[in-house]
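Sample A.
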Amino acid sequence: MRPRGEDAAFAERLWTSLYFWGIPGSRPGSPAGGLLSSAVWWLSSGRGVVSVPWWLRVLPSACPGPRPRASLAFAHCFLLSCRPEPLGRGAPLLPGSRRAFSNEVRPVGSKAVLVTGCDSGFGFSLAKHLHSKGFLVFAGCLMKDQGGDGVKELDGLKSDRLRTIQLNVCKGEEVERVVEVVRSSLEDPEKGMWGLVNNAGISTFGEVEFTSMETYKEVAEVNLWGTVQMTKAFLPLIRRARGRIVNISSMLGRMANPARSPYCITKFGVEAFSDCLRYEMYPLGVKVSVVEPGNFIAATSLYNPERIQAIADKMWDELPEVVRKDYGRKYFDEKIARMQAYCNSGSTDISPVVSAVTHALTSRSPYTRYHPMDYYWWLRMQIMTHLPGALSDRIYIH
């Protein structure tokens, strides 16, 4: 048996292959389909740690008949080729949302990495951490020209390997200017830039009827189209280096949540974009990873009670009269109170996210997806993505 590695998508591929093979109960929508899917996930993983059992390698030769053997051979090669590289035999899982990653890393040397959204939160911590690891870090900051607190602290390190840059990922001219700044700063531009971390993002809340179209477009402009624009702009440099692209998505990019539709839409889009990009870049040696953090709102300071209430008051004032009348203020306030409770219940330690991004940039075999989240959210994500919708709806919605 080969050593273990971590990749949530592996179990999904195994489930798809069972359907491809015609295993009873694997047909989508069948009564046993959801249970079989969950069993496949649980049997093929240990809290996300996946191994390829020996029988997957011998099934093609053991199955008579041209059609079954062809199907099994295809699935067999597909599973082994797409399987994540090993963690190492018996690699332990750390408490909470921490994972034990492979120790096999590439030397950092003078590799250059650009991180977006470094004014605060994940990006701010990533910029400092990657700098401490020896990377040449370009920290894209929205508030660089306004002298934001995060910018001042990063500049205060006074290091030649950490450079803050004014960057609004929604503005094409700023993106183009950053590309030129990075290219001119590289020792050998023909060798390219090693890594791009698309971290910049914004969030909001509100049920569909409470949310304006302007809000939907604003969130998508940053979270989705900003990610696409940055990636397209830097792909020539990344391709030359056969480097890495790490996109920060969310657990809400895998499972929808009430009152978060603007955010969920964009993160589902980031997931799809990342998968398409990974397929396209594989022959070129560029590796694409997605990090799906859980609830870290309390650690990133995106919201506080005052900000939530201010957003809620503005939202209520702008609602059409018919919506206010039909729902009523009591219902509206209950939803806002639930959002406040959610924001206060998140993890305050973002080191699992930082560790995941670092592994994606430095490992010789980065994972397709990383899940830095508490076990409650991890389990909920598996239930909502693997069980039949009617069952997961009854657990979490009804």
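Sample B.
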Amino acid sequence: MFGIDGTILAFIVLAGFSAGAVAYAFLFNRISTEKQVGRRLETIKT
């Protein structure tokens, strides 16, 4: 399959999933922080 061993292909796929999971964790933390800041600003405005 494409001249790549199946084990190496599986390793590449798993490494990609791991990198995606780490990126999602960082982005989720940033998004939740922005939501909290937005809520605080709304309570100050009212």
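B remarks: The chain has a mean pLDDT of 87. The helical segments are 6-45.
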